[in-house]
Amino acid sequence: MKTLSFLFNIYINSSIHVAFAVCSLVGITCLEYDINIAINLLGFVFFGTIVGYNFVKYASVIIKRGNEFYFSLKIIQLLSVIAMLYFSFQLSWTVLAFFGSFAMLTFLYAIPLLKNKNLRNFTGIKITIVAFVWAGVTVLIPIVNEGVLLDTVIYLTFFQRFLLVFVLTLPFEIRDLQYDDSTLETLPQRVGVKKTKIIGIVILVLVVLMELFDDSIKLNYLVSLWIIMIVILIFLLNSKKKQSKYFSSFWVESIPMLWFVIFLFLKTYLDIS
User: Fold this and answer.
1) Which positions ≥6 away from 88 have C-beta within 8 Å?
2) Cα 141 to Cα 154: distance, rounded to the nearest angstrom
3) Which among 104, 146, 243, 261 could disulfide-bond with 35, CB atoms 3.0 to 4.6 Å apart, if both were Cys?
């Protein structure tokens, strides 16, 4: 039992679960636009997510620690870097350039450059950076990889995904109230938990309404979006400062995977497009 618990904690804390969530959102974009789910791109995004997230979370401590957990983390990080480099040679320079711009944001998010401050420490932009990077990697990169020109509809999807990830991040922001420095001025710090949830609800409504501006709207995508909005709403309303250990880090981060499964099922078996 202790071994299973240790392995599960490694799975969560080494960002493997996050990587599956990001790849699920990439898959949703591919299904929505009827483009190939390229294995080389998924591999690059999967291992790149692990490398990026672990860099952000552990850059300042991983070198200093020597216990079993950090040894396992170092092995996972090393293998992920190697795998990411392997898949990078199978992608175009254009895709790598797009990914590099988001990787730079991730780097600046973690490493202090200006007056010993990183982007994470600038007032009020922590959640915005996360949402922007997720939206870029999961919407723009698979589109660019397929050679499709970016147009108004795709940028609309990008903005919709940005808002969706923004709301998905709110349970983490509420949880981190007890840990975040007050100078960060995160949304829950500025307006409180109750108003944060209200803002999240308004954004969810906006995400759904944005589909009205899509001339090529597909019913299977819309139904999957409605279902997942309800799921997100349930988790948002049940978010609180003192959460169970895996409420956000496992269950909330599982929502993109659930969305992908629902959308794939509707698209494959019910054909309600």
Assistant:
1) 44, 96
2) 11
3) 146
Please state the separation of Cα 46 from the chain's center in Å.
Answer: 11
Q: What is the chain's alpha carbon radius of gyration, rounded to the nearest angstrom?
A: 19
Angle at 144 between CA 142 and CA 147, to 5 degrees: 115
For 11, 78, 110, 113, 227, the CA distances from 116, given in Å and listed in that order, are: 32, 28, 11, 6, 43
Residue-wise pLDDT for 37-74, tens only, equals 889 999 999 999 999 888 877 765 655 555 555 778 88
Phi-psi category of residue 192: left, alpha or beta, with phi > 0 → left and psi -120 to 50 → alpha: left
Q: How far apart are CA 131 and CA 128, in angstroms?
A: 5
**Residue 174: how many CA atoms within 13 Å on its side-chain side?**
29
Question: Residue ranges of the domains in the chain?
Answer: 2-270
Question: Which pLDDT tens digit goes with each residue over 15-42?
Answer: 999 999 999 999 999 999 999 888 999 9
What is d(CA 33, CA 272) in angstroms, rounded to the nearest whole number? 15
In whole angstroms, what is the distance from residue 40 CA to residue 8 CA?
26
Mean pLDDT of 190-215: 89
Rounded to two decimals, the pTM is 0.90
Pick from 249, 254, 203: which is nearest to 231 by CA? 254
131, two tokens: 């949402």
Beta-carbon contacts of residue 232 (< 8 Å; ≥ 6 apart): 164, 167, 168, 204, 255
